[in-house]
Write a structure and sequence with these properties.
Blueprint: H1 8-14, H2 18-43, E1 54-59, E2 65-70, H3 73-144, H4 150-184
Antiparallel strand pairs: 1-2
Helix pairs in contact: 2-3, 3-4
């Protein structure tokens, strides 16, 4: 194996279990939702301010100014509508984040299962590489004993180097994909 490249077992061991990733993603999504709700809570006005009368200046029939205060029963109705809107907006945020969480979990599970399939593919390719290594060792012995031509040996050596490189590239691709899975889980 090339120096500095991860072993398949290292890659597998570095990946947390799907349940742990799901819990992390769920926590992240709930934190996001809570931040939205906190921002939503800060935007609403104080309930007592909505019931204050409107204060202004009015003029008497003689044209002299005097202070006025007006209050309308519609303010109570408007207040109730605003409260209902706030409740509905909160519920909307809660429900939208449930949908977002389900979508994210679905994508995470899909990526994780693809990751597991890639591990199986690498394991299968690695087992065939072991056979190729044995065949190359036999070819190498034949070359050392002058049973085969140098061109046959070099061809076999090129094939085994390609096979090793292919497995190493697959391992690196798996490592890269594991980072994608971890990012999707907000790990």
């Amino acid at each position: 194996m090339a120096q500095g490249l991860p072993d398949t077992n290292e890659i597998i061991d570095s990946m947390p279990a799907l349940m742990e990733l799901e819990m992390t993603l769920t926590q992240y999504t709930y934190q996001e939702r809570d931040a939205q709700l906190a921002a939503h809570n800060r935007t609403k006005t104080k309930p007592w301010k909505e019931l204050l009368p409107s204060i202004g200046v009015g003029y008497t029939a003689g044209g002299s100014p005097r202070p006025t205060a007006s209050w309308s029963p519609l303010q109570v109705m408007d207040r109730k509508e605003r409260q209902n809107k706030i409740i509905n907006d909160r519920e909307s945020i809660m429900l939208s984040y449930e949908v977002i969480l389900e979508d994210r979990l679905h994508k995470l599970r899909q990526l994780y299962h693809n990751y597991e399939v890639d591990i199986r593919i690498i394991a299968t390719r690695h087992s065939t590489l072991l056979i190729d290594e044995e065949l190359f060792a036999i070819t190498e012995r034949k070359y050392e004993e002058n049973i085969i031509r140098p061109s046959e040996y070099l061809s076999a050596k090129r094939d085994i180097v390609r096979a090793r490189a292919e497995v190493e590239v697959m391992k690196l691709e798996l490592k890269k994909f594991s980072y994608e899975v971890l990012w999707e889980a907000r790990w």
